[in-house]
Design goal:
Peptide Deformylase
């Protein structure tokens, strides 16, 4: 199931392990541009390739796009969390693939991520206790077949799935929370 070009849960594509990108081709560059545009149009701060049906390790992130003229998301190819703190903090998360709800998810409050950019440069991203830190982890989860539902405890998951089903029945679209 899709809405606004975004794959919606429980589509099985969201549960797949994504392939490593071996070469940055014009098709990968075009896909990254498409993802940046779709992320912005749907009001997201992150988008992973499986969320548009592409099962490869490609992510776009922009947690500060208040000015449309200054919109320049990060593109992360084959991102890997290389360090993370043991200290978990709760953060209210939404997801373009799970519209209409938000869930409080506990995640490490500090991560270091390594990924390639579109010029094949290895870039190191470090984030602590902010939306960027959460977004990095959330989007990398998507590349390994995990949605925010998998981060919830069993009873929280049951409640969140019910809320999501109700939101879909009300016509929730990507970018909407509650």
């Amino acid at each position: 199931m899709e809405a606004n070009g975004i794959v919606l849960s429980p589509d099985p594509r969201l549960r797949q392990e994504c392939a490593v990108i071996e070469e940055i081709t014009p098709a990968i560059e075009a896909l990254a541009e498409k993802m940046k545009k779709m992320m912005f149009e749907n009001g997201g701060c992150g988008l992973a390739a499986p969320q548009i049906g592409e099962l490869i390790q490609l992510v776009t992130i922009d947690c500060d796009y208040s000015d449309k003229n200054d919109y320049d998301p990060y593109v992360l190819i084959n991102p890997v969390i290389v360090e993370q703190s043991d200290h978990l903090v709760p953060f209210s998360e939404g997801c373009l693939s799970i519209p209409g709800i938000s869930c409080e998810i506990e995640r490490p409050d500090h991560v270091v991520v390594e990924a390639y950019d579109l010029d094949a440069n290895l870039i190191r991203y470090e984030a602590s206790g902010d939306l960027f830190c959460v977004c990095l982890q959330h989007e990398i989860d998507h590349l390994h077949g995990n949605t925010m539902f998998e981060r919830l405890k069993p009873m929280q998951r049951l409640k969140a799935v019910k809320e999501y089903q109700d939101a879909l029945a009300r016509g929730a679209r990507p970018g909407e929370t509650e």
